[in-house]
């Protein structure tokens, strides 16, 4: 069978949810709405490109403020529900690639057991401070100066299955931090820990009021226990290009070439550059600033401004697409900047599917799992289909 599209591009707007999921109550997240609350804080979002693709058509009963519902949206549009047990990035991205995480990973709301902390202390020759949930920017304000004096490791977690180590780059050099994180990764793969991610959180600055985290963050994720759509594509000789955090999230599995990025804007510039390359397969981009800089920080106005910047860059990318290209814009979970706490929120995610080859856009049925995305990609490239997910490829009508 011939392929409908030679290239498929997936852009994940990290944490840009589109309203509470049907199971939000199970997570204590009733009432969350990342896009809705962000747009309200901005008194309306100015995102002409997302608008014309059909962003508000996804929920015409409650349009996103400033984003009018289109009579003739350019994209196929709907929202997707998550079936994974967790609401972290790894769960969301793996599910998109056909591997939902059905057994909950472990979270440590009261901090990690002494046994684990002692192992990290022995390996690193440093003491651990905090070892409880925290916001990453608050915790370096609180312990950064202490760390500069003592060299102690700042260990913290969140509502997700993560162990994060914050370290001043001039006190604990990056290479050393990465080694400690790799060690922590090795000893937390199996029970009783079974942690989704170890995250290195380097920062710089001279005092509490000016500490800043750097782009040298590294996420050490579990290795996917089964093949994802990325593996299926790679095995069948297709290109798999990863921009931003994607390579980390899949531990490099099934990825032919990956680029780390320093910001959303940098990520989109890489994406636009990739559009000029001749390749055959998937480009997969994650834009993490929405989540790390604005969602967890509960900054709805800055979140909204970042969406507007993304939209302008999207405007540069769209004219580069040809009839051989399919663009898919989605998210991996919510992180409502107008919601209590600082954790991710259990939300539907938007799904906008666009190609210049389409005659017109239209509504797709609500997807029961993010895995429908991976199934569609596998279907297009004629590889083995993932175990989970239903392709919507045949619904997409070409001119
Ligand atoms: O508060 P910061 O350090 O940004 O951490 C956040 O980033 C992690 C990964 O998204 C989340 O689990 C949350 O802990
Ligand atoms: Mn995420
Ligand atoms: Mn996050």
UniProtKB/TrEMBL annotation:
Chief location category: cytoplasm
Binding site for Mn(2+) 2: 291, 296, 344
Annotated pathway: Carbohydrate degradation; 2-deoxy-D-ribose 1-phosphate degradation; D-glyceraldehyde 3-phosphate and acetaldehyde from 2-deoxy-alpha-D-ribose 1-phosphate: step 1/2
GO MF annotations in UniProt: phosphopentomutase activity
Cofactors demanded by this protein: Mn(2+)
Pfam families, A to Z: Metalloenzyme (PF01676)
EC number: 5.4.2.7
Keywords: Cytoplasm, Isomerase, Manganese, Metal-binding
Listed Gene3D superfamilies: Alkaline Phosphatase, subunit A, Phosphopentomutase
UniProt-annotated binding residues for Mn(2+) 1: 14, 332-333
Cofactor: how bound: Binds 2 manganese ions.
InterPro entries membership: Alkaline_phosphatase_core_sf, DeoB, Metalloenzyme, Phosphopentomutase_DeoB_cap_sf
Subcellular localization, as worded in the UniProt entry: Cytoplasm
Catalytic activity reported: alpha-D-ribose 1-phosphate = D-ribose 5-phosphate; 2-deoxy-alpha-D-ribose 1-phosphate = 2-deoxy-D-ribose 5-phosphate
CDD domains per UniProt: PPM
Domain Metalloenzyme: 6-384
Protein family according to the UniProt entry: Belongs to the phosphopentomutase family.
PANTHER family: PHOSPHOPENTOMUTASE (PTHR21110:SF0)
Task of the protein: Isomerase that catalyzes the conversion of deoxy-ribose 1-phosphate (dRib-1-P) and ribose 1-phosphate (Rib-1-P) to deoxy-ribose 5-phosphate (dRib-5-P) and ribose 5-phosphate (Rib-5-P), respectively.
UniProt xrefs under HAMAP family: Phosphopentomut
UniProt cross-references to NCBIfam families, sorted A to Z: deoB, PRK05362.1
Name this protein carries in UniProt: Phosphopentomutase
Organism: Sporolactobacillus kofuensis
């Amino acid at each position: 069978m011939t392929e409908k599209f030679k290239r498929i591009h997936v852009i994940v707007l990290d944490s840009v949810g589109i309203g509470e999921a049907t199971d939000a109550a199970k997570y204590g997240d009733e009432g969350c709405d990342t896009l809705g609350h962000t747009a309200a804080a901005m008194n309306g979002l100015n995102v002409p490109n997302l608008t014309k693709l059909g962003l508000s058509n996804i929920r015409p009963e409650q349009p996103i403020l400033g984003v009018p519902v289109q009579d003739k949206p350019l994209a196929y549009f709907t929202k997707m529900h998550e079936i994974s047990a967790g609401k972290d990035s790894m769960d969301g991205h793996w599910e998109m690639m056909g591997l939902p995480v059905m057994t909950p990973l472990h979270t440590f709301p009261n901090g990690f057991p002494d046994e684990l902390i002692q192992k990290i202390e022995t390996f690193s020759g440093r003491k651990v401070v905090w070892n409880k949930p925290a916001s990453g920017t608050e915790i370096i304000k609180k312990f950064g100066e202490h760390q500069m004096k003592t060299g102690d490791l700042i260990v913290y977690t969140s509502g997700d299955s993560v162990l994060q180590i914050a370290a001043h780059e001039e006190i604990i050099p990056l290479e050393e931090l990465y080694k400690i994180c790799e060690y922590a990764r090795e000893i937390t793969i199996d029970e009783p820990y079974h942690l989704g991610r170890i995250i290195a959180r380097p920062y710089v600055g001279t005092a509490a009021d000016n500490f800043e985290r750097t782009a040298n963050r590294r996420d050490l994720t579990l290795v996917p226990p089964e093949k994802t759509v990325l593996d299926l594509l790679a095995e069948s000789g297709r290109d798999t290009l990863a921009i931003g955090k994607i390579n980390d999230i899949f531990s490099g599995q099934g990825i032919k070439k990956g680029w780390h990025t320093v910001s959303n804007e940098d990520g989109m510039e890489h994406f636009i550059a990739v559009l000029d390359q001749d390749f055959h397969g998937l480009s997969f981009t994650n834009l993490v600033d929405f989540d790390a800089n604005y969602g967890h920080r509960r900054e709805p106005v800055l979140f909204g401004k970042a969406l507007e910047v993304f939209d302008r860059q999207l405007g540069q990318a769209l004219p580069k697409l040809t009839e051989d290209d399919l663009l898919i814009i989605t998210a991996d979970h919510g992180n409502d900047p107008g919601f209590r706490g600082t954790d991710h929120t259990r939300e539907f995610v938007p799904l906008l599917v666009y190609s210049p080859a389409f005659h017109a856009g239209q509504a797709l049925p609500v997807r029961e799992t993010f895995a429908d995305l991976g199934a569609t990609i596998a279907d297009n490239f004629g590889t083995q289909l993932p175990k989970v997910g239903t392709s919507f490829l045949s619904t997409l009508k070409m001119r």
